[in-house]
């Protein structure tokens, strides 16, 4: 029930002790403010890391070769070797039930790509149709490489949106037109865009079989890329990807005469393993942020409790008079609790609103390599404030209980 006299008492106490009440509320508000900002930064870090993984499929596996680092079977370290179509075909047959999407890649670096008077130096990559799904590429116009292109070794090309802007400045859709790849004509059948931006859109994709034939690559390939069928949960998916990588690298080492202990010769980038490490790190950082924020809030709540103890001490005689006039202990407890909860709630919501406003105003402009749009879930923040108010009630209970146990005769003698 609303009691106007109780509220008048609370405001009179606050008015008499403005500085003390302000400093107490400031400690509570700063605790919530710091927690909200830290949670926002933690979410921003997660957003930034997630954005990095958006460039490719979240469960992609990339494999390439590097110089050997261990002497093996009379072969010196530093030896180079290349992957072949046989490697790609064998892995496909052995793991066909696990593989979701797959593609080999034949790379021709710094090729001259031209259309009429416009030209530039770009990368040419021979790929398979699944590469679009592995790389998370969207078609701006036209189509992607298909199986018919692979089988017929068609001289067709997919160009990045950046190349389209560079070579076809006034042409809205270059589909159906021809470009020269190192003076070899190819028909443009599509334009793609990539979430990675222009750094991923300066490539020309052609059928893998065409790249090997036209650019004299024989049966060699530059690297392999895969995504695997998802499992029931993240941990099981990671475990399966690790098994796949172990089996694949064991086969490649055996096939190309590489020491089993040579960790350098075969490069592997497993995005699931990377994601697991990053998310574990983010979890630890968020846990640390929570710990710092909660400790700050606890300090504020302890401050509230101390202030309530001081208030009880100052109002001892008043409390004795109330009890002498017949006030019940529960009304004394309610009086002290009411003030503690009011101060905690106002300070808590002030800190919450301040933190949310800061994230709302500054967050969209924060774009670094590992932090993007720091924000916090409003429900989480609101729940934190409600818990803070309950903590404030607990903090005020002990001084209130002490006040309720004061004997009137003792209180009336207090100076």
From TrEMBL:
Residues 21-240 form the MacB-like periplasmic core domain. It is found in: Cell membrane. The chain crosses the membrane at residues 21-41, 288-312, 332-358, 378-398. Pfam families: FtsX, MacB_PCD. InterPro entries: ABC3_permease_C, MacB_PCD, Macrolide_Exporter_MacB. Keywords: Cell membrane, Membrane, Transmembrane, Transmembrane helix. Signal peptide: none annotated. Residues 293-407 form the ABC3 transporter permease C-terminal domain. One of its GO terms (cellular component) is plasma membrane. It is a multi-pass membrane protein. One of its GO terms (molecular function) is transmembrane transporter activity. Belongs to the ABC-4 integral membrane protein family. This is Putative ABC transport system permease protein. It comes from Aquimarina intermedia.
């Amino acid at each position: 029930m609303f009691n106007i006299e109780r509220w008048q008492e609370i405001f009179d106490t606050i008015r008499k002790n403005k500085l003390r009440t302000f400093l107490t509320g400031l400690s509570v508000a700063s605790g919530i403010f710091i927690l909200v900002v830290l949670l926002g930064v933690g979410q921003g870090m997660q957003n930034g890391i997630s954005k990095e993984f958006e460039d490719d499929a979240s469960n992609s596996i990339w494999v390439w070769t590097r110089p050997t680092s261990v002497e093996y079977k009379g072969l010196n370290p530093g030896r180079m070797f290349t992957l072949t179509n046989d490697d790609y075909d064998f892995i496909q047959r052995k793991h066909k039930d696990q593989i979701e999407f797959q593609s080999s890649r034949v790379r021709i670096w710094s090729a001259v790509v031209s259309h009429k008077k416009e030209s530039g130096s770009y990368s040419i990559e021979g790929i398979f149709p699944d590469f679009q799904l592995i790389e998370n590429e969207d078609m701006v116009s036209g189509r992607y490489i298909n199986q018919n292109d692979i089988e017929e070794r068609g001289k067709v090309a997919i160009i990045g949106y950046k190349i389209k802007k560079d070579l076809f400045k006034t042409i809205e859709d270059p589909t159906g037109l021809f470009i020269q790849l190192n003076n070899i004509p190819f028909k443009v059948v599509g334009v793609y865009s990539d979430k990675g931006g222009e750094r991923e859109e300066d490539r020309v994709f052609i059928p893998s079989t065409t790249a090997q034939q036209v650019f004299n690559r024989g049966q060699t390939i530059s690297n392999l890329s895969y995504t695997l069928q998802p499992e029931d949960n993240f941990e099981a998916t990671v475990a399966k990807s690790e098994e796949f990588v172990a089996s694949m690298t064991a086969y490649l080492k055996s096939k190309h005469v590489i020491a089993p202990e040579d960790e350098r010769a075969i490069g592997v980038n497993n995005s699931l393993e990377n994601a697991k490490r990053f998310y574990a790190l983010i979890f630890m950082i968020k846990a640390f942020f929570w710990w710092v924020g909660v400790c700050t809030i606890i300090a504020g709540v302890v401050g509230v409790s101390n202030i309530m103890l001081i208030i009880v001490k100052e109002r001892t005689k008043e409390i004795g008079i109330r009890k002498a006039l017949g006030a019940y202990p529960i009304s004394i407890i309610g009086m002290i609790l009411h003030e503690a909860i009011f101060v905690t709630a106002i300070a808590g919501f002030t800190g919450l609103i301040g933190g949310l406003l800061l994230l709302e105003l500054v967050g969209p402009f924060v774009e670094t390599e590992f932090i993007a749009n720091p924000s916090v879930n409003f429900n989480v923040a609101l729940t934190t404030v409600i818990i803070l108010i309950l903590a404030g009630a607990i903090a005020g209970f002990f001084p209130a209980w002490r006040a309720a146990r004061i004997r009137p005769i003792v209180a009336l003698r207090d100076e």
